[in-house]
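$ ./design --mode recover --in tokens.txt
reading tokens...
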């Protein structure tokens, strides 16, 4: 299991740590926007059910709004998820690696990821531009589609920057594994994760009592 680095490991003075600290608030903001998309879609769904059931008047353009919100929900939190290490990774292999072999595997994974994301940025950007030039709209309510399509290359670009920071951090650790990790995701065993979750639950319960 992977989780974010402790706060102390993100307070370095090197260029990797500085880039990490500058990008993190942007990732937090885009992840919050993705969460707002989900919350607003839930509210819209409730309104649709009430309007259709009680007033026999469904919301106009409901399906179109759901379609347009999908890109924000799916992609805006990708860079944040990459930073937190919440995505699915091949732990079976990485958990047995230490030192330079581990960081070499991290470098290879970051490079592959950057290559894939770069291709997706190129094609999603072209898709957005074509939609903008043609004035593409949804079928029912005829909402413009290009703002939703613009979210995809923007989110992927942010994801690419996060992978770049992780690549730089992994190269730094490959050169000298004894350094304090910066800008990378560390592996934690199940016992450490359970201990942290127990502490968080205890702190939350104490806050509730206060």
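writing sequence...
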């Amino acid at each position: 299991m992977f989780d974010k680095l402790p706060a102390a490991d993100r307070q370095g003075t090197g260029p990797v740590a500085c880039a990490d600290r500058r990008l993190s608030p942007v990732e937090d903001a885009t992840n919050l926007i993705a969460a707002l998309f989900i919350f607003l879609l839930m509210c819209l769904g409730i309104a649709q059910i009430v309007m259709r059931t009680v007033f026999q008047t469904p919301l106009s353009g409901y399906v179109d709004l759901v379609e347009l919100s999908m890109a924000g929900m799916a992609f805006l939190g990708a860079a944040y998820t990459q930073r937190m290490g919440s995505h699915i990774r091949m732990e079976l292999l990485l958990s047995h690696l230490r030192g330079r072999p581990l960081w070499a595997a991290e470098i290879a994974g970051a490079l592959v990821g950057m290559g894939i994301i770069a291709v997706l940025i190129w094609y999603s950007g072209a898709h957005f531009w074509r939609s903008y030039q043609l004035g593409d709209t949804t079928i029912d309510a005829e909402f413009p589609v290009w703002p939703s399509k613009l979210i995809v290359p923007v989110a992927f670009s942010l994801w690419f920057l996060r992978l770049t920071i992780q690549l730089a951090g992994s190269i730094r650790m490959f050169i000298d594994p004894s350094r304090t990790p910066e800008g990378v995701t560390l592996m934690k065993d199940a016992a450490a994760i359970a201990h942290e979750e127990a502490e968080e639950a205890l702190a939350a319960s104490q806050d509730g009592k206060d």
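exit 0
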